[in-house]
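Attaching the record inline, Q. Sequence:
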Amino acid sequence: MITGTSEGRPLRAGARKIKLWLFMVGSVSALFVMLLTSSFVAGTAFATPGAGVSQTPIASGALPEPIRVKFKQHGGAGDVMDVSHLSMLQITNVDVSNIAVVKNIVQPGGYFGWHQHSGPSWIVVTQGTLTFYDADDPTCAGYPVSAGKAYFDAGNHTHNARNETNQAAENYVVRMFPEGGAARIDMPAPDVCNF
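Structure, as predicted:
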């Protein structure tokens, strides 16, 4: 047995302290990794990704200077857009810097999942029927939009669209986003709908 060190303590006691220190560092590291992983899993578990949707970018471009766009619900004759299907349309007031056009094909039973956008979008259904749902609607009543009809999405509310038919649906979307805006912001499913 080696009994001497420069401090007069046995080396075996020093080795125990080193092992204890390594164990503590390892335990803290493992705990940190577990917490980080569980936070990531918990954060993604609430997202509601889509299924049965394919998206094709058609065109996109940046404006030379941002423009301010503002949409709000009008009541009465002469409305420019039909937004009566929304239980609550918040005012959309955003500096638009980017415009993008995408084509979506939604297979029967397909859905986009609950989400928001960084700016407003115009949706034109060109084939089939899509049913749009608003998370603020306590009845979870869908609003069907069939081929040849359009839908305005303010972007700043949680919504979902589903193909509840037995044929594929197709739509084109014109997106208006601020600089650095997100095309999709995943949101948790609302308590009002059972899907």
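The chain is about 20% helix and 40% strand. The helical segments are 11-45.

More tomorrow.
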